[in-house]
């Protein structure tokens, strides 16, 4: 730490020296007209560069430098990439070169020059003039990505982005994925909307909410755990196809697949069923993967994943029978199923409902084994308070979850539009909450009233954007695809 402090003092003294000389170390009058990518696009394929050179004006951060007395090479990084610069004393003048020698790695500079190739054949920019635009007070780490404390990378994402080009590429790809999804939806006549992020009643998912308070209204509000109930209100109002790329907040643990603040895309389509959405989801995911990766077959961590259609479809019950060590007779008997659950290490109460029991078993023995895209269907009604009951079996609902590489990526169902049934299920959830289930749904009388006006037959779906980006960027942790993930308070 003492060495770092001395480096900081040295750089601050340089700033003071500039001010004393009447030079602003933070000017705001330099206008770059090109990027490193422009230089590469124009001359990257040319082995010989004509002496009648074209001028380029670029700006960026110094990442490295090599000095040779009266000349130096520096590596410049801008928003489009990196380019080598050649700075020569005779070219820029003795006074300017003296000032240049005080530039540090991390400083931001403005440059004008012409392209040429070095003796080793590297495309470079021969500098005619160079100005310091920003003095960086902190030295850049030499091997930032090699730090054992990965939280430092997440906490100081600004440094991570500077020194690790692969990190920058992840977030460029993330932006492209979101834009592709948005274009796909609007191209199919879906209307993009915005719904409240602060809600008087949190609904639409099974999760604990964050609680806040509105001073002027003197009322408790919740950060939304899902936009679902508001989006379905819009379908009641006649907006038959709506979607929202939204931020959700859930007061839950942090892991490689969970962040308290995360991004989803939820959409609702009137006169559609959950089966229609399975086809729609295949089409959407394949479109995005093809555009981003150029293929439907790719590697994610240790897995080979294929988006080739059609994707596997399997009921919860059949999935447990296929992947678990239990036969149908025992699975269909609640007591025997509970005994099986305990035999595989699940600590469950005797009074657990059969539907919840089945899902506990599924989560333990099936989910992590589903590597290829798989639609899991026929969820228990008990764990699906907003889903439409199946016409042939009221114990299950018309719902699916999409699982890829052992993780849930999407959740969808044919919507429950019977207001009487919905109110009864809300009341059942309230009873569960009264028993201590903090993730159970709240009663939402206004939503029930909306249903009483008539929700057309509708199907809806939520897609985890962060998890999809993880998949398509081969990222192991959700923190790798969120610019500023939630972290513990920094210790000083």
- The biggest beta sheet, please? 8 strands, mixed
Average pLDDT reading:
93
CATH topology name of the largest domain: BirA Bifunctional Protein, domain 2
Return the structural class: alpha+beta
Low-confidence stretches: 144-148
Q: Helix share of residues?
A: 25-40%
**CATH architecture label name of the largest domain:** 2-Layer Sandwich
Strand order of the largest sheet: 6-10-11-18-17-16-15-14
Query: How many strands in all?
Result: 18
Radius of gyration: 29 Å
Taken together, the total number of domains comes to 2
Number of helices: 16
CATH superfamily of the largest domain: Bira Bifunctional Protein, Domain 2
- Class of the largest domain, according to the CATH hierarchy? Alpha Beta
Based on CA inertia axes, which overall geometry fits?
Answer: elongated
Note the topology.
Elements: H1 2-20, H2 36-43, E1 56-67, E2 71-78, E3 81-88, H3 89-92, H4 94-100, E4 108-117, E5 123-134, H5 150-155, H6 157-163, H7 165-186, E6 191-192, E7 198-199, E8 211-214, E9 219-223, H8 228-236, E10 241-249, E11 261-270, H9 274-293, E12 297-300, E13 303-306, E14 312-315, H10 316-323, H11 328-331, H12 334-343, H13 354-365, E15 374-380, E16 396-404, E17 407-414, H14 419-434, H15 445-453, E18 458-464, H16 465-473
Parallel strand pairs: 3-5, 6-10, 14-15
Antiparallel strand pairs: 1-2, 1-4, 2-3, 4-5, 7-9, 8-9, 10-11, 11-18, 12-13, 15-16, 16-17, 17-18
Helix pairs in contact: 6-7, 7-9, 8-15, 10-13, 12-13, 14-15
């Amino acid at each position: 730490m003492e060495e770092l402090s001395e480096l900081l003092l040295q750089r601050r003294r340089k700033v003071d020296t500039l001010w004393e000389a009447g030079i602003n170390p933070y000017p705001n009058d330099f206008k770059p007209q090109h990027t490193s990518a422009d230089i590469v696009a124009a001359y990257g394929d040319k082995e010989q560069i004509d002496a009648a050179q074209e001028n380029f004006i670029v700006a960026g951060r110094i990442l490295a430098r090599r000095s040779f007395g009266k000349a130096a090479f520096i590596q410049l990084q801008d928003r489009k990439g990196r380019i080598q610069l050649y700075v020569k004393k005779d070219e820029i003048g003795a006074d300017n070169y003296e000032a240049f020698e005080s530039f540090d790695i991390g400083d931001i500079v403005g440059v004008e020059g012409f392209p040429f190739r070095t003796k080793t054949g590297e495309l470079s920019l021969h500098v005619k003039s160079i100005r310091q635009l920003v003095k960086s007070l902190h030295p850049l780490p030499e091997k930032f990505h090699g730090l054992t404390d990965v939280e430092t990378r997440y906490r100081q994402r600004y440094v991570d982005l500077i020194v690790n080009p692969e990190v920058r590429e992840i977030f460029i790809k993330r932006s492209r994925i979101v834009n592709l999804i948005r274009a796909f939806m609007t191209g199919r006549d879906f209307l993009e909307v915005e719904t409240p992020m602060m809600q008087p009643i949190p609904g639409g998912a099974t999760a604990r909410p964050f609680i806040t308070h509105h001073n002027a209204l003197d009322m408790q509000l919740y950060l939304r755990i899902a936009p679902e109930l508001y989006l379905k209100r819009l379908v009641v109002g006649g907006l038959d196809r709506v979607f929202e790329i939204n931020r959700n907040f859930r007061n839950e643990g942090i892991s490689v697949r969970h962040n308290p603040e995360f991004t989803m895309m939820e959409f609702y389509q009137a006169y559609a069923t959950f089966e229609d959405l399975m086809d729609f989801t295949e089409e959407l995911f394949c479109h995005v993967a093809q555009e981003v990766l150029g293929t439907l077959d790719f590697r994610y961590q240790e897995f080979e994943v294929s988006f080739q259609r059609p994707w596997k479809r399997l009921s919860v019950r059949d999935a447990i029978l296929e992947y678990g060590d239990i036969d149908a007779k025992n699975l269909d008997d609640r007591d025997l199923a509970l005994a099986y659950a305990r035999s595989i290490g699940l600590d469950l109460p005797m009074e657990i409902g059969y539907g919840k029991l089945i899902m506990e078993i599924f989560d333990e023995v099936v989910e992590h084994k589903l590597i290829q895209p798989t639609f899991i269907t026929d969820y228990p009604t008990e764990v699906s308070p907003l889903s439409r009951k199946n016409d042939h079996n009221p114990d299950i609902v018309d719902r699916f979850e999409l699982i890829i590489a052992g993780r849930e990526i999407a959740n969808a169902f044919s919507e429950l539009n019977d207001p009487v049934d919905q109110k009864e299920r809300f009341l059942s959830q309230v009873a569960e909450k009264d028993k201590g289930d903090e993730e159970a749904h709240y009663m939402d009388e206004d939503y029930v009233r909306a249903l009483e006006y008539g929700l057309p037959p509708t199907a809806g779906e939520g897609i985890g954007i962060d998890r999809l980006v993880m998949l398509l960027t081969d990222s192991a942790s959700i923190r790798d695809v969120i610019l500023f993930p939630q972290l513990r308070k920094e210790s000083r």
